[in-house]
Write a structure and sequence with these properties.
single chain, mainly alpha, 2 domains, 15 helices, 3% strand, globular
Length: 311
């Protein structure tokens, strides 16, 4: 069962370790231990005149919309990098998504060994590879070309900023980290390590849930699905949590990043569909009403802060 996430980043973030970046110089490769990595968000930032400014004022930017509307990932990264360095978890998270989006498609379509493919070669590779349609890959090429041709990690790396966002307590990043740990636990052969990974995944998922952020709720559904050993229709978590998030105000429309990416690889998408809820209805058929009921029950528990039995 595959339910789309906001972007390809969840599926493609690298497991390998990266050097920490210098908050004052995100392109730095080998900072010393005395240099600062991205810092967690604090309650106040400082304005140019030295007075405290509440973080809510910084967080009022809609970074998700800015990323969705951006036609140039370089420009987006440049517009959010200062906020990310100051510890804004939302800026860190969406910067990570932008960088990961480009890196993943670069690896899959635009690079052949140490050589970069031409645009025509990349589109031919997309057609040959199948799955995501070449028109979507073409759009990624346009959005990412400047960033990918600018040199290595001019704004840091996706993994580094995702970790910074998680450490900042940004709920969607915490939910993504919970999913990653749940996946590791599923395939971990050491029972003690698997148990520790599951416990940490639950802890992060619960922290994210307590914020009642719709995007975090959707991402927690992926973690819940991996934590549940059942398969197929017996494991409905992703669909249920997605529906719950849509009910709580997550952008699930045709214009959303999730729906656009879903339909880049799903030929069953139809012009008459209004977004992700219609995808769930189409994919689950007669089960949809039961899943919708479960989503309503899930939201009722979240509203009442009844988190303990959700996993």
């Amino acid at each position: 069962m595959a339910v789309i996430v906001i972007t390809l980043v969840v599926l493609t973030l690298r497991e390998r370790a990266h050097p920490q970046i210098d908050a004052a110089n995100p392109g730095s490769k080998t900072p010393s231990s005395s240099q600062a990595a991205p810092q967690p968000a604090s309650e106040h930032a400082e304005s140019p005149d030295g007075t405290a400014v509440a973080q809510q004022a910084v967080a009022s930017r809609d970074f998700e919309k800015e990323l969705r509307d951006s036609g140039d990932r370089w420009e987006f990264a440049a517009s959010v990098i200062d906020e990310a360095k100051r510890g804004n978890g939302a800026a860190q998270f969406y910067l990570s998504l932008a960088l990961s989006d480009c890196k993943a498609f670069d690896d899959m379509y635009f690079r052949e060994g140490n050589r970069r493919r031409t645009y025509d070669e990349a589109m031919q590779a997309a057609v040959k590879r199948g799955g995501i349609n070449w028109e979507y890959v073409s759009g990624v090429y346009t959005r990412c070309k400047r960033l990918l041709e600018s040199g290595e990690a001019p704004f840091g790396t996706a993994d580094e900023w995702m970790k910074a966002a998680t450490d900042s307590g940004y709920p969607v990043a915490q939910a993504y980290a919970a999913q990653g740990l749940a996946v590791k636990a599923r395939y971990e052969r050491d029972p003690d390590k698997a148990r520790q990974q599951r416990e940490e995944a639950r802890r992060l998922a619960l922290e994210a849930l307590r914020t009642k952020d719709p995007a975090a709720i959707m991402a927690v559904g992926d973690a819940a699905s991996w934590l549940d050993p059942r398969d197929g229709a017996d494991n409905p978590h992703q669909w249920v949590w997605l529906l719950a998030a849509c009910e709580r105000g997550l952008d699930c429309s045709r214009q959303s990043m999730g729906y656009q990416f879903r339909c880049s690889a799903d030929p069953k998408c139809q012009p008459s569909e209004n977004g992700m809820v219609d995808v769930v209805r189409r994919e689950t058929g007669s089960r949809f009403l039961d899943l919708e009921r479960r989503a309503q029950e899930l939201n009722a528990k979240i509203d009442q802060d009844q988190f303990d039995d959700l996993f």
